Amino acid sequence: MLATWIHSIDPVLIHFPESWPLPGIRWYGLSYAAGFLAAGLMLRGYMRASKVALRVGEDSALLTYLIFGVLIGGRLGYCVLYDTSRFLKAPWILFEMSGGGIAGMASHGGFFGVCVAILLFAKRYDKDCWLIADVVVSLTPPGLFFGRIANFINGELWGKVTTVSWGVIFPQSAPYAGYPISLLPVRHPSQLYEAGLEGLLLGIYLQWRFWRGGVKPGILVAEFLMLYGLLRILGECFRQPDASLIFGCNRGIVYSAITCVVGLFLWVWRWRVRG
Question: pTM of the predicted model, to two decimals?
């Protein structure tokens, strides 16, 4: 029965020989590659349609800035927001690896890293920071979508216990190795919910807004922050908290609420700006 489907997907797509330094090619790493590839293809499409004022070669430079921003910001954000105590005691965990890949990433940290990347790129190439930022947020949803799909493949960040017919049993949710599968509860595949919300739904809206045009610079960024925060909060309602709570709330909900507030203030500010 679908309700009793046991998650058994191998997180490693291609296994390397044991003598090699890396275990293989992981789905999680490929999700990042797919997200950046999708962003690059979309950006080229924008340039062909004259929707973004970038010269040949500047699109590659922008992607390079974004890649570093996502990776550095995402990892630093995870350490600061979700692994605070360990990070304060041992800051070098920032370079910690797990299974041949990055140990942990946080989307909110990735957003901060992207903000820094946009500022650096705009200054280096003399671009309007808000126009570039609007373009960048429209490129973001595919990466969020692939990342959540990879979370599901990894069998991590599972949902709360449920009785829905599409629930999944995640063996990794066992309290210790060897725990009987028969005793594990059925859980929401919350990773797929978030893929649909943060990736597909948000992506469709941003593409509609971007191609429709007539949006004051910075407004699309504000709308992205508000909508991402709201959709993430909705998804978190079905997700088992993966870190200690803050004020009795899931950390993801708290950070997403802050993201919404920042987006709202930015939205009001950009609408009040003339021009």
Answer: 0.89
pLDDT given at position 173: 87
User: At 58, which amino acid appears?
Assistant: E
Per the CB < 8 A criterion, the answer to whether 197 and 235 are in contact is yes
CA distance from start to end of the chain: 58
Contact (Cβ atoms closer than 8 angstroms) between residue 232 and residue 194: yes
Q: Which helix (H) or strand (E) holds 101?
A: strand 101-102
- Asked whether the beta carbons of 198 and 232 are under 8 A apart, the reply is yes
Query: For the residues of 11-65, what is the DSSP string, one character each?
Result: SEEEEPPTTSSS-EEEHHHHHHHHHHHHHHHHHHHHHHTT-S---TTHHHHHHHH
pLDDT at 2: 46
pLDDT in the model for residue 241? 83
The pLDDT tens digits of the residues spanning 225-238 come to: 999 999 999 999 99
d(CA 25, CA 29): 7
Question: Cα-flanking dihedrals φ and ψ of residue 246, to 5°?
Answer: -120, 120
Residues of the chain below pLDDT 50: 1-3
Beta strands 12-15 and 168-169, pairing class: unpaired
Residues 170/155, Cβ–Cβ less than 8 Å: yes
d(Cα 34, Cα 145) in Å, to the nearest integer?
Answer: 10
